[in-house]
Amino acid sequence: MRKNKKIAALAGCILVGSSFVSMAAAEEAKSSEEVTLEEVVVTSSKLYATKITVITENEIKAKGAQNVAEALKDVTGLNVVSSSSKGKSYAQFRGSDANSTKVFVDGVLLSTVGDGRTDLRTIATDNIEKIEVIKGPVPVIYGSNATGGVIYITTKNGSNSSNSISIARGSNNTEKYMASFGGDAGNVKYYFGVKKESTDGYTDHSNESAVYYNGKLNWSLNPKASLTVFGSYSETKEQIPNRYDSAGNLIINSGRGGCISQQNKYFSGTYNWEYDPIKQSYIGVVYDQKLNDSSDLSLKTYRSTQKSLLFTSGYQKLDWDGTVEGYELQHTIRTSRINTATWGYSYEKGNFTELTSNIDGTYNRADYTYTGKSYYIQDVIKFNNRLNANFGYRHNENEDHIKSLALWPTYGSISGTYTSDNPVFSLNYKISGNTELHGSIGKSYRYPNAMERSAPGGIYNGVTCNYLLPEKAINREIGLSHVMKSGLDVEVTYFHKNVTDMIKSTGQGGGRNQYFNIPKVEMHGFEAEINRKLSDCTKAFVNYSYTNAYDTLKKRQVSDIPYRNFSYGLNYLKNGLNANLAVSYIGGRTSLFSNGNGNGNSDGQNAITPVSLAGYHVVDLKVSKVIDKREYYVKVQNLLDKQYYLGAYLIAPGRYVEIGTTMKF
């Protein structure tokens, strides 16, 4: 009760304080002829005064990206890592681990209950309107348990979609079929899509087939109220490519980590891993009500699931089944022409079950549950035409419980309770007509996921950690953007992150990983983005990022995170002809053949030897032509057929060629 009173008092202070600031700013505006106040407009993503990277539908299409992993590979400060032994592609922000990344689709947090990581390859791009990426301090409306960053995906509405059929054929006997239809029916806007694809794969043991269904309904109940229902379902069967050394010898799994209900050696000596199947779904319902001209209310409820069954060459099988569901109430109030406040309450619960087979036909089982609730308030102030700011505060309360047969009796049943209070502040300042300064600072936390929660312990600097603490971070970034008279658009951002109680693992404790907290880790770096319109039909870009993410325990850079990345390219668009050429460089790095993430979590402290990987360039090209209502395209990935490694001993695909057509009606 005392905490709730503190939150209510803080919320009241913010609202009252913002009203005084609003009046002061209004008086200042009256006495100045140079500044004209405008009403604050909070976008659907409510990210005013926060720096974001937006990838639009047209940009996704120009790249030829088939999934979110491909769509995000050129984003500065974000590494899409594909070295996982389970064949997944994860997003790591500025050196943070992938379980510090949150992925939303239309406001629904995708289920990652088991290991806290979202496979971006399983999210198709066909129905995506835009992808918003937040790399710095995350606004409190998204929660404050994303110490890395947020990927927010918005799908298409019926009003901005058209009926279409697409067919494509590619290398390795790849086939793709997609159909969508949408439109208006009175007060209802609708969109539905289906996609089916299959491939024989680019290397040994890499067949894959998948089907995706998605839809959205927007119902205008009256001029002041609307109801939106949206959802998606996908089912994938895939073989995970085997790994080979430079002499062509098969590298079998070392058996370190990768599950909760068995010891580290469980997967030892296996190969030919495959999923049959992976099933993912999400559904959400949003009710929006305009209470008056300055007040809006929104109620959202959602549910997301993920179920997968992993087979190996031996008796070992891994069955994961996880669910996340919750609701959120949000109220937005425009207290003045220059100030908007948003407060909200969210509740979420999740459950996860793991089953692992034994050689005698029996199974081990682990069960994990958690509940979380939070209160937050966000205030957006536009002081004048040059300066706007965003302040937020969020209070979180979390409880979790895990029970695993493999841990009995030492860790048969474990429970945890966590609370956190996290402020976030950001601002934009327009120095001149062509120059802007942006900055932000915020506190965030991440409570342990099911795998980490299963076995606290280990030793760091002689201290035994018998209770696992949440990971906490303070994120800072400051940047400057400038548009030159020549049309050259340059933006440079510096970031710095302090992480305390970072969660790591050690291969101690009866053959099982044990998880503990590292007192302090620092990450820093900078990013540069340059864009230039060369002519009415030609644009060019150059992106560069430097990330120093030094692992104080391993005494090296975080695995799979290079110090330097850069990309550059050209886009040409005229008379229905669209050509996009992109070159990406991934710097040298270390990688591990890991059942965890290769960064200490789920790996065992000294179990796996890092492999040094050389940097490489990859060239991608897509050319399309629209004739009437039909588009024809040719896409070539890895145009120069560059040979390189995605991860330790994991050979990357060679040249891939695809031709296709889309018919609109």
TrEMBL record:
InterPro entries assigned to the protein according to its UniProt record, in alphabetical order: Beta-barrel_TonB, Beta-barrel_TonB_sf, Plug_dom, Plug_dom_sf, TonB-dep_rcpt-like, TonB_rcpt_CS
Gene Ontology CC annotation, any one: cell outer membrane
Domain of life the protein comes from: Bacteria
Gene3D superfamilies in UniProt: TonB-dependent receptor, beta-barrel domain (2.40.170.20), TonB-dependent receptor, plug domain (2.170.130.10)
TonB-dependent receptor plug domain ranges (all copies): 50-150
Keywords in alphabetical order: Cell outer membrane, Membrane, Receptor, Signal, TonB box, Transmembrane, Transmembrane beta strand, Transport
Signal sequence residues: 1-24
SUPFAM superfamilies (UniProt xref): Porins (SSF56935)
One annotated GO molecular function: siderophore uptake transmembrane transporter activity
Topology in the lipid bilayer: Multi-pass membrane protein
Hydrolase is among the record's keywords: no
PANTHER family reported in the protein's UniProt record: HEMOGLOBIN AND HEMOGLOBIN-HAPTOGLOBIN-BINDING PROTEIN 1-RELATED (PTHR30069:SF29), TONB-DEPENDENT OUTER MEMBRANE RECEPTOR (PTHR30069)
Protein name, entry field: Outer membrane cobalamin receptor protein
Organism field: Sporomusa malonica
